[in-house]
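Hey, I'm writing a tutorial for new members on how sequence and structure tokens pair up, and I'd like a real worked example in the thread rather than a made-up one. If someone can provide the structure for the chain below, I'll link this post from the tutorial.
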Amino acid sequence: MKIPRLKMRKSTRSTLSGLAIGAASLYALASAYAEARDNLVRFFVSILLLLLLILVFAATFVALYHGARYLGRKVLGQASTEAEDTKE
């Protein structure tokens, strides 16, 4: 089901809401305990960097995999139609 006003799926909205709730919880915890603020900010930034790194590696892997398949078809001379080359 798509939300008409936001034009995003319900599962995407739920994921983003969960991330926002987690960030708000970390902020509330950091403001309540002054000595833990630096550690929580460092933890939050490191988690975001880890997720970004995983995203980059996954996108690179998918690009290399599809590129290898495409080149394999071209090198081996298998007949492929233009529809197969542009197929997702």
